[in-house]
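fold-stage: in
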Amino acid sequence: MMPDPEATRQPAAPETGTGTAFCAPVIVYGALRSGTTLLRLMLNAHPELNNPGEVDFLTDHIRPAPDAPTGWRYDLDALRADRMFRAQQIEIPDGMDGLDLTHALLQRLAGKKARGLLCVSMHRDLPLAVELLPGARVVHLLRDPRDVARSSVEMGWAGNLYHGCDHWVRSELDWDITLSRLDPKDWVELRFEALMDAPEAELSRICDFLGVPYSDKMLSYPEHSTYAAPNPAVANQWMRHCAPRDIADLESKIGILMAARGYPPSAPPKSAPGRIRRAQLALHHKAGMWAFGMRNYGALAFFGARIAGKLRLTGLQRHFQGQIDARIRQTLR
């Protein structure tokens, strides 16, 4: 059934401290490696939608500040150094901070495309995001955590599946918190597997939620990106590429949450790994990330960033992190 246009229209938002009206964006929310970049490309290809990319920097560097005019304050140095913020190529207005800055940055992101409903992508801190952006609606993108963990290991963010699923768990627990604060008409769920299997039908459903007509241009993204067309074979790769023992370890850890999200375990539940096995997994996790980091970023930058961080040498840490970020920009799609 087509939604009532009045129900899907973006609600009016409160005035900012500068006196300019602010309209909350649609948040595309899902764990890292769950397909948020692919969905961003699809949405941004729509002539009436505008998704400029990831904006986790909006919540990563803001903190409560009772003495500030809006009750919030940014760590502006950390924001300027943030890799994803820098990739957006937008400026921080002089003298602006807190919620006024949040709104101003979103307005600059909206201005990167001539028109279209603003949609932004986020992977964490969703409860904080909806607190900062009252009236925001959410598209919750969900992917099998076994594939998320497998992809995270490939990215060097984890050394094994057992630890590679941790950020999926955090994202989904944040979703549970946020869900209780959203009106049912203000969110919709999209499964990555369904998007790969029936992209036109799923994108039409998302367009209904957003209040725009479906456009076949949404599937034109392979013409201007490195991403291939939707393919059902992309889903459930863990079945072909992951060792049964690794899957069993992961499922023993998050099987209940997996099942609650509609992803049943591949086998009857097994007991959680014992102390020795957990120690082995932790060592393998650390060694895997170190090997990946040294291979892809160089030992000096990789260990330099970590040592400087532990010693709270902020300038030096940002120097080494800048080298790592530059390398990531060259390889990350």
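fold-stage: in (second)
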Amino acid sequence: MKIVGISLFMLGLLMSLVIGLDLIMGIDIKAALKNAFNPFRVMEPVELFVLSFFVVMFFAEAFVIWITKKKRTNKHYVFR
């Protein structure tokens, strides 16, 4: 879960940097937000599918690791 948190933190920092630079250049907030999400608007459907597949696999792997760690810690608390 640390990887997910760090990734989201970096995403937020980089998005705020891009939006901040657009605002400094004199672009209004609506256009700055459009520019920040522009790479996703020009992608082909196949590219969007691959991107979404990678994102889903990233979260699925984190979920599987979390479940296996949870099962491993619960085995120690078995009643004897």
